[in-house]
Design a protein that fits this description.
Structural class of chain A: alpha/beta
Low-confidence stretches of chain B: none
Strand order of the largest sheet of chain A: 5-4-6-7-1-8-14-13-9-10
CATH superfamily of the largest domain in chain A: Thiolase/Chalcone synthase
Shape of chain B: globular
CATH architecture of the largest domain in chain A: 3-Layer(aba) Sandwich
Strand content of chain A: 15-25%
Number of strands of chain A: 14
Strand content of chain B: under 5%
Mean pLDDT of chain A: 97
Distance between the termini of chain B: 31 Å
CATH topology of the largest domain in chain A: Peroxisomal Thiolase, Chain A, domain 1
Helix content of chain B: 40-55%
Number of helices of chain A: 13
Oligomer: heterodimer
CATH class of the largest domain in chain A: Alpha Beta
CATH superfamily of chain B: ACP-like
Low-confidence stretches of chain A: none
């Protein structure tokens, strides 16, 4: 990698989300403030013989309204739902950044928008058409809709990005990896601006059956760290950040929302579904080292917190391993208790939650936490968010396969 | 204009950002600002509507698709040959 003589500091100048508890950042944060539950009975498709009948679906998103002003990307309205979410979140983030589009030096802009699964809604429709309805052909845009890089490409086309443009794919760590790679590109001088994050939309009959067969979904709800937790709840959505080098942001007088000061990634290299403590711990430790911070500097930790028996206990142990006594001073919460588990998009939405927590000095809650598990004994901000000075916030993403990515956000540099 | 032509013009309009009412058999497809992906979707719709298969490769220049009239002629021929095939069978 070509290196900058002095590594650039990387700042965040734009935020965008589409979530089941709000389809813009202000709505989403208001949902967190009100401890809103985004989980409800599945809707919009025939649930047939499904045993798991709940999900965190987005119901108030109209692509024709949100994307009607798109100019350069002529087929966005024909794209898969996951690309719509990415496009809407990117649009919100870029508008907030105040960047002029098309970019002055488009080759110095990166667009790294991942997806754990790509356009699985499209695949479901395609297979139904072919195998059940015996249709003569699939829709001509089937391929362009489902490929995992189509969200990145749609966003890049609309905003005229000509630098590195691709998707990351690491299941539930997808967004965190995209954000971390964007940070490294800017840090080492390969780009001045990066549109980063991920998008996901996989709630349909076939995917629900696949998850159901894994026996990791809860039939009742998403209750991270609670004694009663019995699995996660699938969600959909997108979370996108606009990153810039500090010098670039300052030269145009941009409002800096936060510094992206740390990124750490590891792989357990052990098991597809059983995480260990070492991999997540080392990812947290590396992110602290990258940020040149001590564990005691972190005030808020947005946990991966999926509400599976094994994740929440393992994550709690890993946090204790890294933070020592300070683990008990940390505010740790899982916003998945409200917006569900949006798989690859989680790290993007949760990064936004971290930055909003810093802006407002208010930490979002873990809802549904009436009685904590004996193995989960940290301060999980149960049920209601609360005021707390947040200078540095950490966001954990731990994926199937043992793929770990951790981000640290800090205050806007003076 | 017969039923085939009317239906094809309706399909073309459906895929235009700004549909026009002055489309006739002599209108060139290039005048309708139809791009390659639009053409793929239009062919798909025409095939579905008339129950035919239009041999078409996006890598090749399609002489059959220069004007609206040439599309109508091609579709009509395909309907006739598929009808003939069905009659034989």
């Amino acid at each position: 990698m070509q290196g900058a003589a002095v590594p650039h500091r990387v700042v965040v100048t734009g935020l965008g989300v589409v979530t089941p508890i709000g389809t813009t950042v202000p709505q989403f944060w208001d949902g967190c403030k009100r401890a809103q539950l985004g989980i409800s009975p599945l809707d919009g498709f025939d649930v047939g013989d499904l045993k798991i009948l709940i999900g965190a679906q987005i119901r108030d998103f109209d692509p024709k309204t949100r994307l009607k002003h798109f100019q350069r990307d002529k087929i966005i309205l024909h794209a898969d739902r996951y690309s719509w979410f990415a496009a809407a979140a990117a649009d919100e983030a870029i508008k907030q950044s105040g960047l002029q589009v098309p970019f002055k030096d488009a080759y110095r802009v990166a667009c790294i928008v991942g997806s754990g699964a790509g356009g699985l809604q499209t695949m479901e429709t395609c297979y139904r058409d072919l195998f059940i309805h015996k249709k003569r052909a699939t829709h001509p845009l089937t391929l362009l809709r489902f490929i995992g890089s189509s969200a990145a490409a749609h966003v890049g086309i609309e905003f005229g990005v000509k630098g590195p443009t691709f998707a990351t794919c690491s299941a539930c760590s997808t967004a965190a990896h995209a954000i971390g790679i964007g940070k490294d590109y800017i840090r080492h001088g390969l780009a001045d601006i990066a549109i980063v994050g991920a998008s996901e939309s996989v709630i349909n009959y076939g995917v629900m059956r696949a998850w159901q067969a894994m026996h990791v979904l809860s039939p009742e709800g998403c209750y991270p760290f609670a004694k009663k937790r019995n699995g996660t709840v699938l969600a959909e959505g997108a979370g996108i950040l606009v990153l810039e080098s500090m010098a670039h942001a300052k030269s145009r007088g941009a409002k800096i929302l936060a510094e992206l000061c740390g990124f750490g990634m590891t792989s357990d290299s052990k098991d597809m579904v059983n995480p260990d403590i070492d991999g997540p711990s080392e990812a947290m430790r590396l992110s602290l080292e990258d940020a040149e911070l001590a564990p005691s500097d972190i005030d808020y930790l947005n946990a991966h917190g999926t509400a599976t028996t094994i994740n929440d206990r393992n994550e709690t142990n890993a946090i204790k391993h890294v933070f020592g006594k300070h683990a008990y001073n940390l505010a740790v919460s899982s916003t998945k208790s409200m917006h569900g588990h949006p798989l690859g998009a989680g790290g993007g939405i949760e990064a936004v939650a971290c930055i909003k927590a810093m802006q407002d000095n208010w930490v979002p809650p873990t809802i549904g936490l009436d009685e904590p598990d004996a193995d989960c004994d940290l301060d999980y901000v149960p049920n209601q968010g609360r005021a707390k000075e947040v200078t540095y916030a950490m966001s954990n993403s731990f994926a199937f396969g043992g793929l770990n990515a951790v981000l640290i956000f800090g205050p806007a540099p003076a | 204009m017969d039923d085939v032509a009317t239906k094809i013009i309706d399909i073309l309009k459906k895929h235009m950002k700004e549909p026009r009412d002055d489309i006739g058999l002599n209108t060139a497809l290039t005048d309708l600002k139809i791009e390659s992906l639009d053409l793929a979707m239009i062919v798909f719709d025409i095939e579905d509507t008339f129950g035919i298969e239009i041999p078409y490769n996006a890598n090749e220049e399609a002489a059959d698709f220069k004007t609206v009239g040439s599309v109508v002629d091609r579709v009509r021929a395909l309907i006739e040959s598929s009808g003939a095939a069905a009659a034989k069978a």
